[in-house]
Amino acid sequence: MDSSIQTLVIILFILILFSGYFSATETAFSCSNKIRLKNMSNNGNKTADRVLKLLDNYDNLISTILIGNNIVNIASASIATVIFTKIYGDTGASISTLVMTIVVLIFGEITPKSLAKEKPEKFAMMSSGFINVLNIIFIPLNALFTLWKNLIKKLFKFKEEDSMTQDELITMVEEAENDGDLEAHESDLICAAIEFNDLDVKDILTPRVDLVAVDVRSPLEDIEKAFRFNSFSRLPVYENSIDNIVGFIHEKDFYNLYYNEKGPLKTIIKTLIFTNLHVKISGLLRQLQSSKTHMAIVLDEYGGTSGIITLEDILEELVGDIWDEHDIVVEYYKQLDENTFLVECDADLEDMFERFDVKPDEDFEMITVSGWVIHQFEHIPGIGEQFKYLNIEVEVTSADARKVNEIKVTLLPEEVEDEKEKKSKK
After folding, report:
1. What's the pTM value of the predicted model, to 2 decimals?
2. pLDDT range class, residue 322, cuts 50, 70, 90
3. Which among 85, 112, 110 is positioned nearest to 96, based on CA atoms?
4. Which domains are present in the chain?
5. Terminal Cα-to-Cα distance of the chain (whole angstroms)
6. How far apart are CA 176 and CA 173, in angstroms?
């Protein structure tokens, strides 16, 4: 092998190394975690800051990498053709094509990209200095490609995508949990915070039918029984009608009044705030904080009492159920056998659908299972009435004149074949 071929082989080897470098750099910058880089930058890492600046102009960055990669790939293919032609004559071009395809795939694409994907931030920081220099060298070419890109956008009028959606954020959190970066309780808390602003007061209130309140003229003995039997620390107080709630009383203030006879009930009534069914709970939380109260009365569109909502109700949407020693644990689901369950109809409808893997093709306005069952029958059903819905069979096991109290849910077996498939087999 003469010296000219040796020189070309050395140049070819260097070009293949650069091909691998550019491929690895493209993967590293594409896969880098910007949040991780920002944390490093905030901790004083100047190299991470340089990578972030390059990523801020990603179109320019990717153009620089692709220009460099194509230059070295074309140059390596040309030099390889010269080398193999000198050695093998007319068949050298064909041999060169075969050999360079394999070499570039293995050493210029697959191997470097696989390695860069393992530690993308580290490799991006390592190569950022050289890419910065190339960015300056390729300024004219990048400017030309930018003009071309803008022309293409005007010709085809691409619709710009919205910023990251809520569903995408939740998916990211779930992926982080699956990858082991987040604990399950941390993931649940983040997802609850993301979805928090979607909830209205009507989604979590205690409805009027379950409301425990006292009349301002009630004997103190009756109010004492209401506190003792219901284990609430606060009770709403109404005048004449539950649609005219005037405030609330605290258990501590009441017992101080009850045992020490310090005056009429009106002296311990605290003011509360009023809200409506369609207020976002995030906004109501700020109202409760600013008013320094724990309870709000929810009014319907006619000004009547629709229910109440407490600060604890709102916080439970973020952190899950908050129990104290006086709370009664309600078991909404009781399993009878593998496919049969008794369901308390105060249970949340979405929770029941999720539990039984029911995927309705419509949105329901009702929140409780009771409301949904009545909606399906279009009347308040009696015990024993039943219906099928998607993959479940529902039978009413307890009901009164106003609502359904309990249902039996039977999971139906999945159909292996649809009717068309059965007919085609016949």
Report:
1. 0.54
2. low
3. 85
4. 3-156 (no CATH), 166-198 (no CATH), 201-319 (3.10.580.10), 333-411 (3.30.465.10)
5. 74
6. 5
